[in-house]
Amino acid sequence: MDHQPTRDNLYNAFISILTAFLLLSGLLACSSQKDTFTNRLYHNTTARFNAYYYAKEKIKELENKLAQEYQEDFSQVLPVFYPIDSSIIEANEELLVEAREMASKAVDWHKISKWVDPSYLLIGRVDYYQAKFDEAQNTFKYLNVNSAQDEVRHESLIRLLKSFIDLRQFEDANFVVDYLSKEPSISRENKKLLYTTLAYYYEARGETDMIVPSLFKALEFTDDKAEASRINFILGQMYQLAGLDAFAYEYYQKSLSGSPTYERTFFAQLYSQQVAELEKSKDLKRVGDYYDNLYADNKNVEFRDVILFEKGRFEKKQGNLDEAIRLYSKAAKQPGENDRQKGYIYEELSEVFLREKEDFLKTKYYLDSALAKFKETDRNYASLASRKVVFDQYAENYELLTRNDSLLRLSQLSAAEQEAYVDTYLAQEEERLIREAEEASEKKTTGIFDNLLAFGGSGGGSTSSFYWDNPAAIQRGSLEFSRTWGNRPLSDNWRSSNRGFQDNTDETSPSTAVEAEDLTETSSEASFATQLPDKSSLLSQIPNEPETRQKMLEETENAYFNLGKLLYFDLKRPETAIANLEKLIDEFPETPKKPEAYYTLYLASRDLNRNPERYAQLLNTEFPNSQFTKSVNNPEEVSGSQANFESAQNYKKAYAHYGEGEYAAARGIIRETLNRYPLSKHTDRLLLLDILVAGKLESVDQYKERLEGFLQNAQDEKLLEFAGNLLQAVSEGDASDVPEEQTAQMGAEDGSGEEAETAPSTPGDLSPYSENPSQTHIFILPMGEELAENVGNLTAELENFHTANFTNERLRTGTIALNRETKILIISPFPNAEKSLEYLDTFLNSFNNDSLPEEIKNSSFVISIENFQQLNKRKDLEEYRTFYEQAY
């Protein structure tokens, strides 16, 4: 059969002839750079189809990898450009090396071709991806000035614009935008790149209203259907965020064209239904059926967590909170590779248990789970980590209190009663475990082929009689093994005679199990073989020795006190705070924490308008000389930053008098300061200096008594250690003299004009803080009460400041109480110390606010997440500042 020549055949024949001609002419062209037609034809063709082509393909391959390996976060508006992941760049460095080599050959070997400037442009792009921004920008600027090819000039300017945006050089970016706006005849391809880059510019600056028009213009010039699909999805997200559901639906539907990934297709369909019907539907059954059908579709197996999560959000909007929690918990247990999605689920659960249920224990554990799923570089990691610190402290004290309370009650029983209690507990636990296994067995459906498969088709019985398919049988076997052999770890040769009977006892208290089934991600089948704790190990936890009971009582006392303060100052729950503090006073009437407990009860009762005068009267009657009593009696005195500053200055003066032996003058300044500023951040330091003065003016017994009182009430660990050393020294001596080497440590800080040191550490003391510059950091601005009350205005100003200078970082602002007189404003997250210090420098030099005094502004600092947890626990800003000045 004869074949007619096709256009492709003719084209291939032409290329073959042209190639032969070029090879022949190339013998002369290679030895000459004359600007002849033959030379130009050879160099243009060779440069374009060899060096330039392969260089461009290598860059395109890298960009495809960046897109493919980026995990889109569909719960947030997608970024205009795929973010550049340095790890992917490093892993594909060879592509950039090859691209540079080929582009350089196009420049060096084909100097008279018209592909020299485009090859220079490729070299600039290679520099850009290798983070050589100066070299890249210089190349782009050079081409703008020297290239005769408008298309190359325009693309160079657009890529220069993108690098300026990356580096937040917005003034330079504005100049480029203005320049390009006056350029005629920009090609279609460059217009698409220009408008997409303009959308990125507005995204970086937080000007969301301008992103949509820029993306619209980019769509006009986009021929790539896949790219158009992604842009349409972003437009749908932005319209949904703005509440324009009809427009959102339209663009979600448009995003389904262009062969989007299955993941984007799924979210486009899901969000389309949300904005079209689900959110407004009164037919709740139809809505539920929609989500159920999505869940049942095998194509959506990897998105089942998303489906359950979205259904839970819908139920929450309808007021069905318990059903929402059930769906969230089920979503968290679904298998899936998208950790960030799981993080959002746990974050939502933490919010529900905090805001709706006021269950701070579960809030803490859900925050733990959320943080485990997010990366430190994710936008909400730092804010979650900073919030978690308070809940960690709550959980620590609450669980200690619960455990000790139960065990102390058991310790009041006789030995026989204790054994009987533990036997009953173990029997109930065994019954519960078997019952749960039986319930799981009943839930398991029996298919038509199950009986055959159970015995390999022999028809030997039902699946429920087959041991390995019977959870209840497995559980009974596990418990029988536990009774016979003890709780042994799984290992080879477990029958070896040299193993002890209780090698792996369970340390769980019978009364401290936290009901947190919904906090686990393991399947119910995994718990069938749970082993019971060993009876002897449970009995050993009961504090039958007086010393152990006393230690537990002290822990319980501190836990009630700590919970009361946390609930009032940090969690803003005055009613629950009152309950804990009143229980502290009822159960421990001689507690040295009583003055501060009364003071906190006074504040909480005042907030609730519940007779705060009662606690003011108790303070005046029982503790007339307490600093807390003075604070209640002088509510109008200066407090906050001014009180801190004044008390620091007076401390220096008093110490100077003390050092000169002018003890009466020192005492006068100390007591005047304590009367005027009873609860400043330097109160404990002033009290300790007053005790040192007492060591010179009063009896040894009075001196020792005051030191003992100080040790019972102070909280600063360094001051406590210092006072302990003083007490030991005077207890071992035979006079009231205080060792000079000890008192020298109470000296004030010289020359700073700020605050005195808390107490210098002895040589060899280790700081509780550690240097970790690569860890996520946060910015801290300490504030007094008065400034914190007006923080709303400050927060708004900071948001404007971030929009202008740090938009792409997606910074978050929040405020928490560090202690009773100091609040801290937190700005987060920063991926490392360097970025946080850059922010600090910009803040100090560029941020201005009338309500923010200069000395407060200059007191700001940065801190890693790990160190912040220490700071929030120790409550000592000056201790951290000492470390900060050395480390940063």
Automatic annotation (TrEMBL):
It comes from the Bacteria. It holds the Pfam family TPR_6. InterPro entries: TPR-like_helical_dom_sf (IPR011990), TPR_rpt (IPR019734). Residues 493-512 have a biased composition (Polar residues). Residues 492-518, 732-774 are annotated as: Disordered. SMART domains: TPR. PROSITE patterns: PROKAR_LIPOPROTEIN. This is Tetratricopeptide repeat-containing protein.
